[in-house]
Amino acid sequence: MRIATWNINSVRTRIERLTDWLQRSEVDVLALQETKCRDDQFPGLELSGLGYEVAHFGLNQWNGVAVLSRVGLEDIETSFAGDQPQFGEPPVLEARAIGATCGGLRMWSLYIPNGRELDHPHYNYKLAWLESLRTAGSGWLAENPDAQIALTGDWNVAPEDDDVWDMEFFANTTHVSEPERAAFRAVVEAGYADVVRPHTPGPGVYTYWDYKQLSFPKKRGMRIDFVLASPALAERVTGAFIDREERKGKGPSDHAPVVVDLAD
User: Fold this and answer.
1) Model confidence over 218-235: pLDDT tens digits?
2) Cα dist. 9→16, 67, 111, 132, 140 in Å?
3) I need a labelling partner for 164 at 20 to 30 A (CA). Which of 49, 99, 194, 258 fits?
């Protein structure tokens, strides 16, 4: 089985790139983030024509997550915890998580809050969101240590210094602060391994490049998209790669797909 995650940065804008990539990549299950559309606007027909079932959670032109599968799609959830943090005034649940069981694999597409600035309320929301995810993920493994779970998506955290092109450039900003990194490590310590990094060692290996200031050709990127796997799933990993070719060409997303191969 081949699984992947991709922050598509507007699925309607990039549907042709998505369908072309799916036909080339042979991905069985794909998690998408930042679809930027409501459920009724999602271009499902184009994907069903390729043999993919779709579970999508989108409320407006912001955020939005989806799971695409050609190996089954069951038990869809749009919240990983009953007390999943909310943001705004009054607080509302944002479209940032969707989970589905696909061929025996529990696939979560996650779009972790950006945080914006260190002194912004969105930063505290981000930390609470990650802690809620850690709590939920720990509970799943306590219930079933052999569960096949993939926590995939845009984490908006660069866990190591090598995950950004210049730490001085990111000084006193989100994505690299110690509380964010500690929150990411807590999910790992709960039992979910980064199964991509061993196959894509850094430094200089990124998944995201800003559109501004020629960041991609200048290799000024960040590694913020991850596949974290439960112990039973991690044992099945046979390879992984970041498809940075999809960051090239006309109208790309600012993120590249992250792909993981699993033994049957």
Assistant:
1) 999 999 999 999 999 999
2) 13, 15, 11, 25, 30
3) 99
